[in-house]
Write a structure and sequence with these properties.
Layout: H1 2-16, H2 21-25, E1 31-35, H3 42-58, E2 62-66, H4 73-80, E3 88-93, H5 94-97, H6 100-103, E4 115-123, E5 126-131, H7 139-148, E6 152-155, H8 161-173, E7 178-181, H9 185-193, E8 199-203, H10 204-213, E9 216-221, E10 249-255, H11 260-274, H12 277-285, E11 289-290, H13 295-316
Parallel strand pairs: 1-2, 1-3, 6-7, 6-8
Antiparallel strand pairs: 3-10, 4-10, 4-11, 5-8, 5-9
Length: about 325
């Protein structure tokens, strides 16, 4: 009798567009947010801010679990293989979710079809950085140096956002920057500081401390607008490339089989936090802008960006096994 009543209640709620008992029960155990990158980058920083606030909101531990490797594919694979109940989430961004499908030949999963978009968290500009003693201070000076000699830029590897931004910049400025791939953005930044390469296109949170200490020099941010917390850094568009506008999104995804009711609950709770003054301030301190959307809007964004970045990958010629 009780089972039949629950089934009837679930059906009635679905017809009325209300949350079902499944959503009301979530979460009933600790939640893991898998970050497919090493600690210290933008994904990790935003995930930790959100994990703390969701833990307080849900009354359950929300644990950040870093699973780096293979351009994010190891962490993504772990999420796809997890129990599809919403208790394992993926902290993702455009660099893995929208690019890897075009970049890798033999992925065991589809970065678009096998995941359920849950909630966008933020958009975040990247920044072109050089050493504090670099011979160039501006985009114009960087372009001039490249036209008159050799300028190298490091990335997290072939096909990474760092790499593709360099390709986009080179095409827009009509210069040739020499790409030097690394196994991660952290290694590229280490060699930048050591004087082995000239510039890196990287996320603002990953170099915020180095910029504030003066160890690295900001050249320009890649978004159309300046970052609020780094308003002194001009945009690439301001420097003469008016159509240059890249501010990658970051967000949470789940295995594609997670119940819709659970996805909607997480989305509602995340969006409530994104609109709070405390989370907004924490994100802005990282150079990020809160970006609340619905799961359907997130899905549309992902599909559009998979097409957009797929074209950039193919133009660059980058392919990985």
């Amino acid at each position: 009798m009780l089972k039949n009543m629950l089934l009837l209640l679930t059906a009635a709620c679905a017809q009325l567009g209300l949350s079902t008992p499944v959503a009301h029960a979530f979460p009933d155990k600790p939640v893991r947010i898998i970050v497919p990158q090493t600690p210290g980058g933008a994904s990790d920083a935003l995930a930790r801010i959100m994990a703390q606030k969701l833990s307080e909101k849900w009354g359950q531990p929300v644990i950040v679990d870093n699973r780096p490797g293979a351009g994010g594919n190891i962490g993504m694979g772990a999420v796809v293989a997890s129990t599809a109940d919403g208790h394992v989430l993926l902290m993702t961004y455009v660099g893995t979710q929208a690019i890897n499908g075009a970049l890798y030949r033999n992925l065991p999963f589809d970065p678009v079809a096998d995941f359920a978009p849950v909630a966008t968290l933020a958009t975040l500009p990247f920044v072109i950085v050089g050493r504090s003693n670099a011979p160039f201070h501006t985009v114009a000076e960087l372009v001039g140096t490249a036209k008159n000699g050799r300028v190298t830029y490091g990335s997290a590897g072939n096909g990474s956002v760092n790499h593709l931004l360099g390709e986009m910049f080179s095409a827009g400025a009509k210069v040739k920057l020499e790409h030097v791939p690394y196994r991660g953005a952290a290694q590229a930044l280490q060699d930048l500081l050591a004087g082995q390469i000239d510039v890196v296109f990287t996320s603002l949170p990953s170099v915020a401390g180095q910029l504030k200490s003066g160890n690295l020099r900001p050249i320009a941010v890649t978004s159309a607008r300046r970052a609020k917390a780094f308003a002194q850094i001009p945009t690439v568009a301001e420097a003469g490339l008016p159509d240059f506008d890249v501010a990658p999104w970051f967000g949470l995804m789940a295995p594609g089989r997670v119940p819709r009711e659970v996805i909607l609950k997480i989305n509602t709770d995340v969006n409530d936090l994104l609109r709070s003054r405390e989370v907004s301030a924490s994100f802005e301190a990282q150079g990020a802008e809160p970006f609340p959307t619905s799961p359907d809007e997130f899905g549309q964004q992902l599909r559009a960006d998979a097409l957009r970045w797929g074209k950039v990958v193919r133009t660059s010629g980058a392919r990985l096994d």
